[in-house]
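Please fill in the sequence for the structure shown.

STRUCTURE ENCODING:
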């Protein structure tokens, strides 16, 4: 397990955000949809914003392994069993399963698929629900959901293929 992948995957929302919310991409549309101005943006403590964004993205990247890697669920079948000792029945069974299927579906494509599904079925509904109560329009939902769907797809790809 390469834990550095989690720290790298957590950078993806920041990198995508720099492009996605640029004024020449969706930044102007987003600012109009939120009611923000450039002056409002200049008042923010961007070091704090980026720092907290990275911290929260670390949380997302960490949990993505359970969303995009099927093998993490095999471990849950052996909860509290001595799976790291192949001399035990549980350990031998776990080892045989992982030897046969440990690398199944561990690809960029598969991770991106699950990341996209997570974006569509987790991020989109959360953003849309908040937007409905905040009286935000379709553009707000589309811009923000699109950002998270793309970020989740890329995070899923990285975590699934390289963790």
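FILLED IN BY: designer on duty
SEQUENCE:
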């Amino acid at each position: 397990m390469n834990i550095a992948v989690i720290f790298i995957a957590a950078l993806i929302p920041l990198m995508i955000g720099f492009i996605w919310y640029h004024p020449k991409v969706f930044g102007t549309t987003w600012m109009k949809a939120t009611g923000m101005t450039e002056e409002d943006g200049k008042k923010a403590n961007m070091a704090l914003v980026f720092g907290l964004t990275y911290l929260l993205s670390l949380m997302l990247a960490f949990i993505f392994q359970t969303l995009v890697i099927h093998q993490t669920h095999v471990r849950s079948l052996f909860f509290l069993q001595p799976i790291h000792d192949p001399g035990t029945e549980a350990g031998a069974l776990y080892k045989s399963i992982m030897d046969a299927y440990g690398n199944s579906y561990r690809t960029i494509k598969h991770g991106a698929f699950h990341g996209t599904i997570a974006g569509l079925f987790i991020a989109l509904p959360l953003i849309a629900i908040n937007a409905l109560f905040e009286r935000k329009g379709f553009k707000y939902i589309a811009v923000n959901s699109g950002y998270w769907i793309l970020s989740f797809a890329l995070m899923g790809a990285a975590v699934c293929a390289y963790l």
